[in-house]
């Protein structure tokens, strides 16, 4: 499990680099265009800048997302380093500032794929892009009252995953493994993130059918391996042998949990989420009971593809049905019984995707409660 320690060290370096980074506000031509073309009169561009805005690349999930973006760029006959990277290191403020700076630099001739880091940050990002005449496709995080069709063509699409049910499935696998009795803890993502909220709710849904299992504690670990390691260590100090299972909101949290358990000589069943290559290997070994694959390579590539093809005028988002503008991505449950087969099909040989098949693997329109 040396890769877990290496992963934690990489995250420490990322934080140090964030402290050295500077943020830039909107200026110049982009500011002048804030009250420019209306969404229904959106201009198109022959060769827009293509950018991906994301947390960081040390996280295996985000590395796969961006690898998908690079694969799409290469499908256009461009070198993969022509993709512009906006790395926010988990800061919504930096995310927005970087987008505004790039809008100014490109004069709005931009096709942007972005996870805005948290749901409230999505609106100012979208408004900045639409006001500057750029095209944006978002992933994972937005508020329920924000919709692409309210911005004509410029807000191209939003993709998320229906996490509550898969997270409930992993929870049931965990609760069965502990015999339906005992105490579990949950380590979540950033508290305001949609997937973090849904994955915790999935656990709570499952617990309704297991009255003899107590949810001892649930804390946000911010999708962070090191923070998860620290929280799990504190859980062990506080609850000790009362902990009979651990429900993790993603794989990278799981790595920190495993390291904390190992340090105390404990072996406790855990489940995770995302289907990263390292996690799949741990599932195959039985160190993790289950994880959920969300096909980040396809998600990263198609999100960039949607923004780009809308920006070039290849299709008009406003002419598409709502289910093509807000939709769920695919999920696959991975257990020890099928981990090796899954790894061979999806990880050892990454499938070749048709980046103009925007909605092929998707799971239908997003539903709101």
Automatic annotation (TrEMBL):
<dbReference type="InterPro" id="IPR025997">
    <property type="entry name" value="SBP_2_dom"/>
</dbReference>
<dbReference type="Pfam" id="PF13407">
    <property type="entry name" value="Peripla_BP_4"/>
</dbReference>
<feature type="domain" description="Periplasmic binding protein">
    <location>
        <begin position="50"/>
        <end position="313"/>
    </location>
</feature>
<dbReference type="InterPro" id="IPR006311">
    <property type="entry name" value="TAT_signal"/>
</dbReference>
<keyword id="KW-0732">Signal</keyword>
<comment type="similarity">
    <text>Belongs to the bacterial solute-binding protein 2 family.</text>
</comment>
<protein>
    <submittedName>
        <fullName>Sugar ABC transporter substrate-binding protein</fullName>
    </submittedName>
</protein>
<dbReference type="InterPro" id="IPR028082">
    <property type="entry name" value="Peripla_BP_I"/>
</dbReference>
